[in-house]
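__Record contents__

***
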Amino acid sequence: MSDRVEHRDRLRALEFEAFVAGAGGRLLHTATLLTGEPPRPSGACPRAERLLRAALARTYADWDRLHGGDPYDLARRELVLRFAREARRHQRPRGGLLERLSPLERLVLVLRMYEEVGEEQAAALLGLPGDRVRAVCARAVAALRSAGRGRGAASAAGGGTERPAPRGTAPGPRETA
């Protein structure tokens, strides 16, 4: 009987390792966006990595209860809920485009735009009404747009360098103020 349990545990560990190998990078990027932590010169993001490790530990603990469910959804859910519980620690990101956003705005924006989670699913995950998720997302997008306009005005006034358009895209019309 112990051989059977040992084999099952080994199989479980191999399945989980394969899941982390496939989804770990995207989950780490999500955690980095949530915490608003810029990478250190070594490329490490300690707060995001800590958040992800805790979420993956919980995912591994619940692995047997998946019963054919999506492990990515479980890991993302745990990551999001853990971030929401610890949001006080993530009030002041130290750089990046998302630094202007509150933790809730970052959370909603990352779920809706980066993770492409539907509005109703995000609302259910966060325990918020759908119209609240919609309003928070709209506010976050507006804040990012106004930040982008401020940077564009500084570039036009000679305060910075203009970034080229991404490869494969045509330059868009310029806004005049």
